[in-house]
Structure formats: structure tokens, C-alpha cells
Amino acid sequence: MGRTQVFECFRRFKEGGTSVESDPRSGRPLTSRNEEMIAKVRTIVRNNRRLTVREIADDWGSPWAHTMQF
Predict the structure, then answer these.
(1) What is the Cα gyration radius of the chain?
(2) Where are the chain's structural domains?
(3) Which residues have CB under 8 Å from 20's CB, separation 6+?
(4) CA geometry: angle at 43 spanning 26 and 53, to 5°?
(5) Angle, in degrees to the nearest 10, between helices 53-60 and 35-47
(6) For 43-70, how does the pLDDT look when each residue is reduced to its tens digit (9 = 90+)?
């Protein structure tokens, strides 16, 4: 855990928080990065290593795919 995260946890506990879990937030759904999706992307990349992340996202019509880390 980095220094910033330690300070954030300390701040939350100081304010009465009792959980180390992150608060819910908007953004990419949690189900967007799972083993099935990772396997699909790896297969696509192995079949054509010249594809960019943007091209993969455009092919899928998925606005969040460009944020995936490989």
C-alpha cells in the first residue's frame, strides 16, 4: 500500500469510517475486468499484434476497453 493510500485510510478512520474497502463510485463496472474478458483480449492480440488498444475498443464498441492494462 502506498503512502497516499495510507493517509486516505487514516483520514477515513479519523472521520468515523470502519471499513478499509473503497466507497462505491461511478465509472467502469466491476464486471468489465474479469478472466473471461482478459482471455478474449489476449486471444485478439495474439491473433494480430499490430492492433492498437483503440482499434480493439472500436471493434467491440466498448468505450472503456481502451483503459484496460495488459
Answers:
(1) 17
(2) 32-70
(3) 9
(4) 50
(5) 120
(6) 888 999 898 878 887 777 665 555 555 5
